[in-house]
């Protein structure tokens, strides 16, 4: 059973290392572009089973990683406690997308049906292949369907169904 608070929260990254001696942390970001993790504030983290809000004092891109200074975290020992902590934001912290555009987590779990009416399964997750995004659909077998026209025909959020032009044997 997932409680309601987690449904409204999105996993946006993770604190995955220490940076410098003043308590700065390194971040792994799921945001696109990655540095956007710094613009979604505040962050919500679960520490010992309790939700806690973290404020960012400063943050920047540092080489291939992103680093941030957290409020009231002033040395490495305090910062060390946060390593491995997942960073969440509230859903309403995200900008509203134009009509017909969706965040990946909104598509997860939608049923995918092809043009001949065959149910391919549900979207397990999305993958960015570099050239385009792909829906990973799990049903009787796994289908990797490009999230672009001409394969993507229609998304109906009311019925939670996506119509695709994709052969069930492929």
Automatic annotation (TrEMBL):
Swiss-Prot/TrEMBL GO biological process terms: rRNA processing
SUPFAM superfamilies, alphabetized: PRC-barrel domain, Translation proteins
Domain Ribosome maturation factor RimM PRC barrel: 104-169
Record Pfam families: PRC_RimM (PF24986), RimM (PF01782)
GO molecular function: ribosome binding
Limits of the RimM N-terminal domain: 12-93
Chaperone is among the record's keywords: yes
One GO cellular component term: ribosome
Swiss-Prot/TrEMBL keywords: Chaperone, Cytoplasm, Ribosome biogenesis, rRNA processing
PANTHER family assigned: RIBOSOME MATURATION FACTOR RIMM
HAMAP family cross-referenced by the UniProt entry: Ribosome_mat_RimM
This protein's name: 16S rRNA processing protein RimM
Gene source species: hydrothermal vent metagenome
Lineage, top ranks: unclassified sequences, metagenomes, ecological metagenomes
């Amino acid at each position: 059973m997932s409680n309601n608070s987690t449904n409204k929260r999105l996993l946006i990254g993770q604190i995955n290392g220490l940076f410098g001696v003043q308590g700065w942390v390194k971040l792994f970001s799921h945001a696109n572009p990655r540095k956007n993790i710094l613009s979604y504030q505040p962050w919500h983290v679960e520490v010992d089973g309790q939700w806690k809000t973290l404020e960012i004092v400063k943050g920047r891109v540092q080489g291939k990683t992103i680093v941030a200074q957290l409020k009231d975290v002033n040395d490495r020992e305090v910062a060390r406690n946060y390593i491995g902590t997942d960073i969440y934001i509230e859903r309403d912290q995200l900008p509203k997308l134009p009509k017909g555009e969706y965040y990946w987590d909104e598509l997860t779990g939608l049923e995918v049906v092809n043009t001949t009416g065959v149910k391919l399964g549900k979207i397990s997750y999305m993958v960015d292949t570099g050239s385009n995004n792909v829906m990973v659909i799990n049903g009787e077998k796994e289908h990797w369907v490009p999230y672009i026209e001409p394969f993507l025909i229609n998304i109906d959020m009311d019925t939670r169904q996506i119509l695709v032009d994709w052969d069930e044997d492929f």
